[in-house]
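yo

u said u wanted the structure for the complex thing, so here. seqs first:
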Amino acid sequence: MERKNFLKSLLVGAISTPALLSACGKESDSITPSTGGTGTGTGTSSGSCAVAPTETEGPFPTKAPASYVRSDITDGKAGHKMTAKITITNTNNSCAALAGALVDIWHCDAEGNYSEYGGSGMQSTNYTNVHFLRGRQTTDANGQVTFTSIFPGWYNGRATHIHVHVYAANGTSLKVTQIAFPEGSGSAVAAVNGYGKGLNGYTYNASDNVFSDGVTQELATVTGSTTAGFELSITFGVAA
Amino acid sequence: MSTRLITLCYRKIIDANASRPWEKMVFEDTYTEFRMQAQLLNQEKKYRSFGELLHYAPGADQLHFLVSAAVRGYVQQLGGLVPDVIDNLGRHFLKFSKFQFEIINSDLLDKARHQVAINFYSEPLMWHDTIGTQLLVSEAAGVGGEILTNQLSLLPFLSIYSLQTRD
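structre next:
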């Protein structure tokens, strides 16, 4: 590089310094707006500088919980209403109620689909039910959480079930399990009858690969009817 | 003359260097959610990095989706404007209604290695001309008569995502 050009490039650097400083001074972007000028040494590149943000401060962000945190997880999904009461007890404390535990549940819709399937992964800001039929609640003093949802449908290879993940208040996993449903005549599974598709080909608990080792720990009590809605209750012991 | 309709994608990277409140909250909350959700796929605690989980744990690609629940509330707080991207007047103007969250890297034991991205997809814009290094664009809705325009530079991590030509 000729001496003249070199000096020129120094000069460009000096000129663009204030722009750099002001960009940094805004405790600004992870991507610092390009100030151009460096490396070309032509002295004309300052015209391609990008401006720094120049706006009134804000909006001010506030802490936002994960969109799982809600009691009603229906998200407009069609189906028979179901209220699920889950009680968490501590097997390390004589099965006393465990307060402050986080309980995640998720299940499929009436057609047997989960919210994570399909799509490009692109989410719309106004399409709020992308995480449909998934919820998180914190247990109360009685160790209980309540969700409002719909009675799950069924899909090939599995009996009707709800996934449950229990965490300690700090997020440490305490238990990953599933809720099984009573079946046979008079049961909710029989009453819902697969939302019209029937139970032809249904996998019953005895042949389900998760529940076939026995469902005594996972079988919920389910009462109610298709018109009045269903009430599900179950207690899980975790070692906390 | 044909008109060109484009959408832009801005890929906002958020990592341990996050300095502004919004970015810090996204960083913290996505790391917390990642650690919670990863336990489902890592019940034997065999893996510690996101890369290992993706490679060895079946279903680990769900983690993008599962952890995205931690950012929805923050994305909604942006009021429909893509962050960081400004026009030549120094103002945020780029509207979006679609985004995609991705985990780039993470580590269950080392928060400093947590790195995520939010891809913001803009509403369609008419691309009228290129002035120097800047695109002259207007909102696609403007038809006939005078339309208001914006000039913007394509900074790093900002690209034209789709192009549609109309006669």
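Chain A touches chain B at residues 27-31, 33-34, 47-48, 50-55, 59-68, 102, 116, 120-126, 130-131, 134, 165, 167, 171-173, 176 (CB under 8 Å). The radius of gyration of chain A is 29 Å.
cya
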